Each structure stands twice: as structure tokens, then as C-alpha cells.
Backbone:
């Protein structure tokens, strides 16, 4: 009797990113970049689909989920102010 192997977390056609690649995509730099990326992904409810092999292997995330979550982030702006011409922030009282 033969058994099929367990299904892989991601199909071969789905692109996987390491947490370092996610950190670079999100614009995090420095020693705490991967930690910041982990926190941002956790806030958005994105979990790792698998992990690289080896003791120092990094978590792997679906690139499509990371892109969708990042594109859905609101523009930080200036406490709700919108940008006018030339990139300056304006409020409703500016004329």
C-alpha cells in the first residue's frame, strides 16, 4: 500500500519570500529589519507558510499575501491631512 506525501503548504507556482526579502520589500533596514517585518506581518494576520531548511533557516511567506497586505495599507499622511499640489500637506482651512 502506498500513501501520498502530505500536501505542501504552497504549490510550486506560488512565490515564497524569506522574511529578509519581506523586510526589504517593506522598506525596513538595519539589524532589526526582520523583527520589524515579523511584527508587521503578524499585525496583518499573515503567517509563515513554511521555513527554510537548516538551523538558521528563515520563515517563508507567500509573496502575493505580502504584496496585497502592503498595498492595502493606508497612506500614513499627516493625521488625516491630504497632500495637495507639490506634495505639501493641506488641511480644510488652508486656502
Residues:
Amino acid at each position: 500500500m502506498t500513501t501520498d506525501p502530505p500536501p505542501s503548504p504552497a504549490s510550486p507556482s506560488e512565490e515564497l519570500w524569506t522574511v529578509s526579502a519581506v523586510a526589504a520589500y517593506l522598506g525596513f533596514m538595519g539589524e532589526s529589519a526582520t523583527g520589524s517585518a515579523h511584527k508587521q506581518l503578524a499585525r496583518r494576520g499573515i503567517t509563515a507558510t513554511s521555513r527554510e531548511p537548516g538551523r538558521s533557516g528563515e520563515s517563508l511567506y507567500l509573496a502575493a499575501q505580502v504584496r496585497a497586505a502592503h498595498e492595502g495599507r493606508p497612506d500614513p499622511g499627516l493625521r488625516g491631512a491630504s497632500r495637495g499640489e507639490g506634495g505639501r500637506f493641506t488641511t480644510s482651512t488652508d486656502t
User: Anything to note?
Assistant: The mean pLDDT is 78. The radius of gyration is 19 Å.
